[in-house]
Amino acid sequence: MQSNKDKANFFDKVYEVVYRIPHGRVTTYGAIAAYLGSRGSSRMVGWAMNHSHKASPGIPAHRVVNRQGVLTGKHHFGSPAMMQQLLENEGVIVEDDQVVDFREKFWDPSRNIDDA
DNA sequence: GGTGTGACCAGCT
DNA sequence: AAGCTGGCCACAC
């Protein structure tokens, strides 16, 4: 079982989750990794974002931040201020590279994706 | 084909 | 209390 499509389980799932992040909302690498069933694979989620623009252009990677709500990968958007600008553009306030009211803006995949 | 690295997280010292 | 190491999976050389 698990035909040839099973190959990109984790990776592909990451893109799907990120795509489903609503505007003005943010999620964390660990949350996605945990949703996929592996909290230890949080690094893979970040790595996936690294190639997200080449694998699937249009991925709102700026909505993905670390556990603290800090824009860890802001430097990977071409411009360090780009990620913050994108978030603020969606209504997410970022201060000192950190998402304000991160708890409120946090979007849990395992809790909302199922309802969507 | 082995080694190293990577936008992390959590536990141990 | 804070710093560091380990662990996870996938890609590049």
In round numbers, the mean pLDDT is 85
Amino- and carboxy-terminal Cα gap? 28 Å
Task: Just name the CATH architecture.
Answer: Orthogonal Bundle
- The CATH class assignment is Mainly Alpha
Integer-rounded radius of gyration: 14 Å
What helical percentage do the residues reach? 40-55%
Strand order of the largest sheet: 1-2
Shape: globular
Number of domains as seen in the coordinates: 1
Following the backbone from N to C, one meets helices and strands in this order, namely: HEHHHEHEEHH
Number of helices: 7
Topology diagram in text:
Elements lengths: L8 H11 L7 E2 H8 L5 H9 L1 H4 L8 E2 L16 H8 L4 E2 L2 E2 L2 H4 L3 H4 L4
Parallel strand pairs: 1-2
Antiparallel strand pairs: 3-4
Helix pairs in contact: 1-3, 2-3
This protein binds a DNA duplex (13 and 13 nucleotides) through helix 2, helix 3 and strand 2.
Q: How would you explain this protein's 3D organization?
A:
It is globular, with a radius of gyration of 14 Å. The longest helix has 11 residues, at about 10-20. Helix content is about 40%, strand content about 5%. By secondary structure, it is mainly α. The N and C termini lie far apart (about 30 Å). A two-stranded parallel sheet has the order 1-2. A two-stranded antiparallel ribbon has the order 3-4. α1 (about 10-20) packs across α3 (about 40-50) and α2 crosses α3. The chain has helices spanning about 10-20, 30-35, 40-50, 50-55, 80-90, 100-105, 110; strands at about 25-30, 65, 95, 100. The chain is built from 7 helices and 4 strands, in the order αβαααβαββαα. The protein has a single domain (about 5-110), classed as Winged helix-like DNA-binding domain superfamily/Winged helix DNA-binding domain (Arc Repressor Mutant, subunit A), CATH 1.10.10. The chain binds a DNA duplex (13 and 13 nucleotides) through α2, α3 and β2.
